[in-house]
Design goal:
Oligomer: single chain
Strand order of the largest sheet: 10-22-21-20-11-18-19
Mean pLDDT: 77
Largest sheet: 7 strands, mixed
Shape: elongated
Number of strands: 24
Helix content: 40-55%
Distance between the termini: 61 Å
Radius of gyration: 33 Å
Low-confidence stretches: 1-56, 150-160, 267-275, 730-736
């Protein structure tokens, strides 16, 4: 029987802090131990979050008591309230400061800025100075409440990912009888039959049938994958065309998606708070402040109130208010600019990034093929006539390339006609009779089956990543559609801007190396910044490798196959149009679907933390000056509060300047007339020689000057040992 695990977290008003919850979660058994204890991979279960559907209160509960204590302190005189009672209420309102002070002593074994605040509040309250400590506590807890609002949203979407694989499956027995069962009941070596539109919930091998799959969400490939008997099928594929019988090889946690989920679950959990800038700076001045307060106590002949006033000149209050204010203003402004930034931590790290790793399909490219060029091979046919015939043959198919051909024809206002005869050949193309013409449209395999010879196409660097779709009419090949996943219009400018800022830009893709390097050449990426034929786990490994080198890594992706890498990156970025899991995993979602908005996010980060550094001065200078003056000359608690909190308000106002942020447009990318990288055989055709001659010149060290003389456009070429591809010299020199 399936076992369930229901985890109930305490409600928000239970007194548990965020750190308490994190420590409790870390105490749970690891994924492997949990699976071992349950003696099986558990099925999908709901995780019950107590109060999870409740809306956050408009006024955080943590500031209700401090604000109430301030109101009582202000009304104590007019209403003749007992000072001791108000003081006790203030001390109760300051309980969180006392608790943080105690935790600092217990866990860190040092006196932190919270201890300084707690000591000042305690002394002044018991001395009868009520307004100062009440105001101080209100501002401290108000800042803490704002900081809590910047917590990173937990991105544990593993259950949602696996839940998407829960489906009813038609299991087939040895006699050919079909039985509908839940996918969770499937076992290795079971056989199942799938029809067009089915989402595959398990890994397996095609036993019978010829089909095509939409695999973009899992592998990133925008062109459908053809499969026949003996080919591997992965959970998450969507069957587009054909019917197949598949033998199951892995289910549940053992599938490729299950392994991706395990990678996400094992990703490191980061602190959810904003960098603790206030604590880092303010804690450095705790001991000097205590020392000066002691000096003041001696010089003032034991005036405890005077000494306690100096304790209020800490930097913690101002920074606790101004830092979260800057973060919240930045997050608010980001939302209006099409940037959903889920945490202050992500905003902070954007200011320090060293490497940006992009998935190619759907990130640097649009994610779906379109016709980028149409060659007419027989001038006796008008282009419009050929597009009309092609669209008439391809209409109604849900194959992405067929849709691209139909859309391309529609741009010329060509309306498809109804074929007199029509036959679709899975993985090859279409044969039809249209307006009295025998029409074939498909790949080279279809041509060979019909006894036609594939034409020699001219080498064009701008079409080296395109898929040719041949059109034959009445037994002769008359046209070629070139379909490709085109670049996003802002990708090139983004890569150039990252390079200008000294940030490495790496491209990961499941495509083969020649296609990957051809795309990279158009983007201005260096050969060492291209990683082809990458599986999902390899993407995560690359991110971890960069982090092991001490680099700050941003990963940008939009598919299920990117989720593990997104989870491991310091900052993860996805698109509003990306997969559900990618959006939930990402720290930043580009809601306008413009990849170049990453630069706007970094500019906002730089402005925000520039203002935060300014606020350190705004808060530090008056407080430290008053601290030195107050050591030798008397300063009352009200004066101390006004100086301390006044500087806090000025810093908070300065922090609000992020609300005026406007992203600057990216400069136009410099035109790049360099040809795409080529393999030896393709370079030999370009240079009009043999690949043996090219290899000989390379070994003799004369390839650079010799290739410049042979190249029709005067380009020099260099061989890259890593990619085993020839690159234009200017690109290769950038690597060196």
């Amino acid at each position: 029987m399936a076992q369930s695990l229901i985890i109930t977290l305490p409600p928000s008003n239970s007194g548990w802090s965020d750190d308490d919850v994190i420590r409790w979660m870390n105490s749970l058994p690891s994924d492997g131990e949990l699976v071992h204890q349950l003696n099986a991979c558990p099925p999908i279960q709901d995780v019950a979050l107590s109060g999870g559907n409740e809306e956050e209160p408009f006024v955080p509960s943590r500031i209700i008591l401090p604000v109430s204590s301030l109101a009582l302190a202000l009304l104590a005189g007019p209403l003749s309230l007992p000072p001791l009672g108000v003081a006790i209420f203030i001390l109760i309102a300051a309980r969180l400061s006392f608790r943080r002070a105690w935790e600092g002593l217990r866990d860190e074994r040092r006196i932190n800025v919270d201890a300084l605040d707690a000591l000042a509040v305690g002394i002044h309250s018991l001395e009868g100075f009520l307004i100062g400590p009440a105001l101080m506590i209100s501002m401290i807890e108000g800042g803490e409440a704002v900081r809590d609002a910047t917590q990173r949203i937990a991105h544990s979407a593993s259950s949602d990912l696996l839940a998407g694989l829960e489906a009813d499956v038609r299991r087939v027995d040895d006699a050919g009888n079909e039985t509908i069962v839940p996918s969770s009941e499937l076992k290795s070596d079971d056989r199942a039959i799938f029809y067009p539109g089915d989402s595959i919930p398990c890994d397996g091998i095609v036993e019978k049938g010829e089909v095509s799959f939409d695999v973009v969400k899992l592998t990133g490939e925008s062109v459908p994958r053809h499969a026949e008997a003996g080919d591997e099928v992965l959970a998450g594929f969507i069957l587009l065309e054909g019917t197949m019988i598949m033998r199951i090889t892995a289910v549940g946690c053992d599938t490729r998606i299950g392994q991706i989920t395990a990678l996400i679950d094992s990703a490191p959990v980061f602190d959810t708070r904003v960098g603790n800038v206030a604590a880092r700076v303010a804690n450095r001045f705790v001991l000097p402040t205590l020392a000066l307060a002691g000096v003041s106590l001696l010089l003032s002949a034991g005036n405890l109130a005077q000494a306690a006033s100096l304790l209020m000149f800490d930097l913690g209050t101002g920074l606790r208010v101004s830092v979260p204010t800057a973060i919240m203003a930045a997050l608010t402004r980001a939302g209006s600019q099409g940037l959903l930034i889920r945490s202050g931590r992500a905003l902070e790290l954007l200011d320090e990034i060293d490497v940006v790793v992009f998935d190619k399909t759907g990130t640097l490219t649009k994610g779906h093929p379109s016709v980028v060029h149409f060659d007419v091979l027989d001038p006796s046919f008008a282009p419009e006539t050929l597009m009309h015939l092609a669209a008439s043959a391809e209409q109604g198919l849900n194959h992405p390339i067929a849709e691209a051909v139909v859309q391309y024809a529609a741009l010329s206002e060509q309306h498809p006609a109804t074929p007199d005869a029509w036959d679709y050949k899975v993985g090859r193309g279409v044969s039809a009779v249209i307006d009295g013409h025998s029409v074939l449209i498909g790949n080279s395999r279809l041509l060979r089956e019909e006894g036609l010879t594939e034409p020699e196409l001219a080498i064009r660097p701008d079409l080296d990543t395109a898929t040719p779709v041949f059109l034959a009419v009445d037994g002769a090949i008359v046209g070629v559609f070139h379909a490709a996943d085109t670049l996003r219009p802002d990708s090139h400018a983004l890569v150039q801007e990252l390079h200008r800022r000294g940030i490495q830009a790496h491209m990961l893709t499941g495509d083969i190396a020649p296609v990957a390097h051809a795309v990279a050449a158009r983007l201005g990426l260096r050969p060492d910044e291209v990683h082809a034929e990458a599986l999902p786990d390899q993407k995560a490994e690359l991110v971890k490798a960069f982090k092991d080198q001490g680099k700050r890594v941003v990963f940008v992706g939009d598919g299920i196959n990117d989720s593990a890498a997104l989870a491991y990156a310091d900052v993860s970025v996805s698109f509003a149009s990306g997969s559900d899991l990618a959006r939930e995993t990402a720290d930043i979602v580009l809601t306008n679907d413009r990849v170049s908005d990453l630069i706007a996010a970094q500019d906002l980060s730089r402005l925000t933390f520039k203002l935060i550094r300014e606020n350190i001065g705004i808060v530090g200078v008056p407080n430290l000056t008053a601290l030195l003056i107050g050591t030798f000359f008397p300063l009352g608690p009200i004066t101390a509060v006004l100086i301390n909190n006044g500087s806090s308000l000025v810093a908070a106002g300065n922090a609000m300047r992020t609300l005026r942020f406007r992203p600057s447009p990216l400069p136009e990318p410099q035109s790049c007339d360099l040809p795409a990288p080529l393999r030896a055989s393709d370079l030999a055709k370009r240079l009009g020689t043999t690949h043996q001659r090219i290899s000989s010149m390379r070994r003799r060290g004369g390839l650079h000057s010799w290739s410049r003389l042979q190249d029709p456009d005067g380009h020099s070429w260099r061989y890259c040992e890593t990619t085993q591809i020839y690159h234009p010299l200017e690109i290769a020199e950038a690597v060196a």
